[in-house]
Amino acid sequence: MLEEVTINKPDFLSEGNWEIENLNRINILFGKNGSGKSLLLRNLRDQNREYARYIVPERAGNITSRPNLLQNLRTPEQREQQANNNFQNNYREFVVTRIDNYFRVKGFHADREEKFANAELEGLLNTLLSDFVFEFQDGNQPYTLHRDHNGNKQAVNNINQLSSGETQLFTLGLDILMTAAEWELANSEQRLLLIDEPDAHIHPDLQAKFADFLVQVSNRFDVQVFIATHSTVLLSTIGAYAPDSTNVIYLSKKTENISAERFDELKTKITACLGGHSLVGALFDIPILLVEGDDDYRIWSQVGRYDTIDLSVIPCQGEQIFNYQKHLEKLFSALLETPETPIGYALLDNDKALPEPNPDNPQDYIKFIQLSCHEAENLFLSDEVLNDIGINWDKACERITENASNHGAKEQLLVNPQDWNRKNHDLKPIIKEAEKAIDNKNVLWSQRVGQVIGKEKPEGQLANFLGGQVLNSLWN
Questions:
Q1: Which of 378, 384, 372 is CA-nearest to residue 467?
Q2: Which neighbouring-strand residues pair with 5?
């Protein structure tokens, strides 16, 4: 397995090489168009032609075998010659003809029959094609494919009987599987699979199936994979199926020295929150909002249910917000041109220092913003939230004082609320006690705050507690 690679960069990207280290069994190249993903894969193939297979699904052809193409698949050099370009008129026929080549190779290695049975390959492909049944067969057409609908099987003999996504998934899966099987039969020492944007035209559900299939093939046949993609669905599902075996390579035109990063729990959470494609939020002007914890998440996810603003809220659990922001900044910089305004924000309480943009973290995509009050709990004591409950601050102080003796060791923290600075008092230790005293309807304080903020753009004391930075960023 390759642990590091040095690859020539094309002149138009910049001089020098890509130096990539810390490679894993599955390595995901993540970057926007023009960052060099395809060129890197092809250059990697050119350096390792004897044991590398480069696969691009943006190809054409029908899903039938053509025996006259078999002669073009007899050696690694001949096989790779068919994959030199991004487009190939008869790619699908070549893929199906690989089944004939697989049986030819298997005949040469009959002593290795015990390595795997045909049924195992059929089973792997059928996990990818859940609505179909694939089987090998003898004859001019080396397989049968049936669409299985409630037990009623319909033979599929032509590409016109499949959707574009189904066709792509079938030929892509078959290409990968036949390649891996041939390597296994030949006892190949090195097995390098290079897949260029397999997610194009494939629904997120099918991308998840492909991720599961790819991980199974990689594990079963000891194949090292490099895969270029824009899809956070594919990124997150591969990472979920093989977290210890998956690393991410962030690529840009300026990238030279790269250390592939392990797909850890943080990346799993973020990519899952981003959904089908990380560009979707930006396209529809829905900003990402990172918040520090569960209470903040309840507030801002409640806000997002109203029509005043749209938000995609991600809870980060305290100090993790800084790691989330840094990762998202890197992720979006690999996918998008620098925006005029940020596409998301990381919201901090006022008890933390507000990080300034710097060359390592310019905050071009995810900008740090800060509440004007001490922390989110203070919003609960603003006049506007109290008015929504049906009381004013004087009445709230009476209720808190009356109930102070019910809270044991916390009594002394609750006896003089009239002395609190509602904007800057540390309410976190006693917010539940204050909530219970003030709001007879037992609505969670965070939910109450979210409802008031969400109904209309905040004004008055609530706007002052939130601060102009928050208001101008989220209600621009």
A1: 372
A2: 20
Rounded-to-integer distance, Cα 449 and Cα 398, Å: 21
Strand order in the sheet with 143-149: 132-136, 143-149, 152-155
Pairing of the two strands 17-21 and 5-8: antiparallel
Cβ neighbour number for residue 86 with a 10 Å cutoff: 12
Model pTM? 0.64
Residues 6+ apart with CB under 8 A from 73: 79, 82, 94, 97, 98, 101
Axis-axis angle for helices 91-108, 164-185 (nearest 10)? 20
- Could you read off the pLDDT of 159-180 as tens digits, one per residue? 888 888 888 889 999 999 999 9
> Is residue 470 located within the same domain as residue 345?
yes
Q: Identify the CATH number of the domain in which residue 90 sits.
A: 3.40.50
HEC assignment per residue over 289-327: EEECCHHHHHHHHHHCCCCCCCCEEEECCCCHHHHHHHH
Q: What are phi and psi of 77, to 5 degrees?
A: -65, -45
Q: What is the pLDDT of residues 298-357, one digit of tens each?
A: 899 888 777 778 888 888 878 899 999 999 898 888 877 788 899 999 999 998 899 999
Same domain, 231 and 343: no
Distances (CA, A) of 232 to 72, 211, 268: 36, 12, 10
Please check whether residue 274 lies inside any domain of the structure: no
Q: Does any domain span residue 323?
A: yes
Q: How far is CA 116 from CA 179, 189, 220, 319, in A?
A: 14, 18, 10, 49
Residues 261 and 311 in one domain: no
Range of the domain at 222: 5-128+161-265
Based on the fold, state whether residues 407 and 333 are members of the same structural domain.
Answer: yes
Domain count, the chain: 2
Quick check: is 330 in a domain?
yes
- Whether residue 271 lies inside any domain: the answer is no
Q: Could you give the CA distance from residue 247 to residue 4 in angstroms, rounded to a whole number? A: 12
